From TrEMBL:
InterPro entries: Ald_DH/histidinol_DH, Ald_DH_C, Ald_DH_CS_CYS, Ald_DH_CS_GLU, Ald_DH_N, Aldehyde_DH_dom, Aldehyde_DH_Superfamily, Succ_semiAld_DH. This is NAD-dependent succinate-semialdehyde dehydrogenase. It comes from Helicobacter turcicus. NCBIfam families: SSADH. Belongs to the aldehyde dehydrogenase family. It comes from the Bacteria. The keyword Transferase does not apply. Keywords: Oxidoreductase. SUPFAM superfamilies: ALDH-like (SSF53720). Residues 16-467 form the Aldehyde dehydrogenase domain. Coiled coil: none annotated. The active site is at 245. Gene3D superfamilies: Aldehyde Dehydrogenase, Chain A, domain 1, Aldehyde Dehydrogenase, Chain A, domain 2.
Amino acid sequence: MDLFAHKDILKNKIENTIEVKNPATQEILAYIKKTDKDVLAEIINKADKAQKEWANILSEERADILMRFYYLMLEHKDILAEIMTKEQGKPISEAQGEIIYAASFIKWFAQQARHVCGDIMESKMQGQRLMTIKQPIGVCAAITPWNFPSAMITRKIAPALASGCAIIVKSASLTPLSAYALELLAKEAGIPKDVFVVVNGDSNVVSDVLCGSEIIRKLSFTGSTEVGAQLYAKCAKTIKKLSMELGGNAPFIVFDDANLQEAIEGIMASKFRNSGQTCVCANRIYVQSGIYSKLCVELEKAMRGLKVGNGLENGVNQGPLINQNALEKVKEHIADALKKGAKLLYGGKEHRLGGTYFEPTLLCDVESNMLVAKEETFGPLAPIFKFNTEEEVIAMANDTEFGLAAYFFTQDYKRQWRLAESLEYGMVGINTGLISNEVAPFGGVKHSGLGREGSKYGLEEYMELKYLCLSLK
Ligand code: SIN
């Protein structure tokens, strides 16, 4: 795949471009043209026209095109993964996994496209028929993050395209190459050029245009709660439909009766996926007093097996953090916890490789007055809190404005139900640390967002329900 075939990707710097760097080596990979405001307005107008034609073709035809897109993604899996590792830093095996995950949304929604249907309701009156139909919402916009440069795009574009919407994606400036690669493949698959377009530029400039547009009827955003709230406000004037997948502060609870080895595997998978840079990462690990010391020892053993390095190298499973700000936040959380009495069991500092590499870090005796209890670390820090009772840990787990994902390990089936129902979160992993897939509804409550992505519910987010009342008199 020749990325430089895309008109917005350049080998050499010119004015008004974004530098794309490899966080593992600091090598400049490419320059991206910023989308000019007038060009963006034209893209929106063209999408408006193209959407109507796209919506008008049979859903079966849209599904076939999406399936071609899916197969093209699989065919290009290795190169897409390499592009991702180079611009984002995640290990190549994780990048390959993300491409499969990203492609799964395309396949899932291609299949869902053919199952859209309305209802016929019993009338209240003689000579009247009441019905609903579902229609695509129109032109949509998506603003996507750097931590999953492909999957967070396909999770939005697949339902949009399947339902007959057009979609304009502002990709993260740190990881735009994966986005443009998807756009190239989508065109090759037969998705009309104005129906899915990637744009870039200064976030505020682009989001002002997207959010202020009357043509764009829906915005889907994945990112921080702070930015989500700003976008929410910006969309108020044009009353757009919104999907927001925002920050998390996931509790990960291990009870005395848990299978310890499975709990360790769950923590490792949840905490260290993408070097801790996911919204659903275990952020606070609560361990019951009877199993506490043993778990700390076993977790440290497992963490010693993590290999930090350039994601393109064999055996590496922890890449660099995305940038210096990310690294500073991890350092801040560790320093704050140590100052307030936490104990360092493993790691704790910048990795000897330099740059933005950080040592996987284990802290125990962490308390709720520490920063790490309140904020998402978004890095490879595992903080262990001790608890005694179920009631106590439910209160601790829910003591946050966030509500994205929560996890717990227990073999007591009655407790499984109690916890599942008491945790104020959109998603709950029970005896597992990995919950994401295309079949399940992904999303949070409280400050973690609005709406659901993936699953059968994901399509509804891109459709309007229209009610028809027919008089036969
Ligand atoms: C995220 O971190 O925003 C998404 C993680 C996932 O899809 O599992």
